[in-house]
Amino acid sequence: MPTASREIRLASRPRGAPVPTDFELAEVELPDPADGELVIRNAYVSVDPYMRGRMHDAKSYVPPFALGEAMTGGAVGQVISSRNGRFAEGTWVVHDLGWREAALSDGRGVRGFDPEVAPLSTALGVLGMTGFTAFVGIVDIGAVAEGDTVFVSGAAGAVGSVAAQLARARGAHVLGSAGTPEKVAWLRELGLDGVFDYHETAARAALRELAPDGIDVYFDNVGGETLEAAIGAMRLHGRIVACGSISRYNATEALPGPRNLFMVVTKRLRMQGFIVFDHNDRFPAFLAEVAPRVADGTIQHRETVVDGIERAPEAFIGLLEGANVGKMLVRVGPEP
Question: What is the pLDDT of residues 50-59, one digit of tens each?
Fold first, then answer.
């Protein structure tokens, strides 16, 4: 029998910060799966900062969202009907079909997840794409080692919080910035060596106080003025891990880059951007290290959960405004 579902579609391309009318809620019926296909009833869908870039009609590392079509992205749910030999009915799976209550899949990009090993929601956060992003950035791009001084911006977010804890696990002296007293308090609970609220203290002044001898690695989630401050604080041969620039995602015109970019030359810095999908071969190593640390509490995580697919746009807008602590998720169906 057809499966009823609701989904969120992009109705218009945002100019500046997205607003609710840029999205629309649609009701659909999914057909029974054909050979090789499966139907997944989602439990959680993910909202992530990178999705803002996909709302522009511009070429990037992933295609832009199409107007009038469902938003894609990470989701986790249970197979409720299957004609695919890899996935039996009842299996819990992670996929990238996004903002829907249910999805029809041909099996590509789908992987299993065992909810007895870790809570289902972690498949989209600390044990999913965001945790994996932190791992690649700290371990492979930043090459963080014992004795390094590491600064993570957006350190209370889904990526930043894991990055900061992975750096600490490697014996680094870790600093972090966040945008609310609640987030700063959580970073202190995580044991970071120095934290600051960038609304209260400019990054340049905070780094001068917290790292008077400079920093070795900067894990950049925000760009803008914070990136400029970090470049100024870098030691010789420092490494900048360019992960994101959320401070600029809603800009309506091109913004100037760091005014001190010449220091990349004079300090002999290495600045490297990365897209986590280019490093999928490292996912087993990520799970081998991080899953046990999550299980024993060595790596902690938080989630901000919004209920109902109709509230996915609200969750996404809130994410861009910093309303989340840790991973932002939308709960759209039952879980184990």
Answer: 999 999 998 8
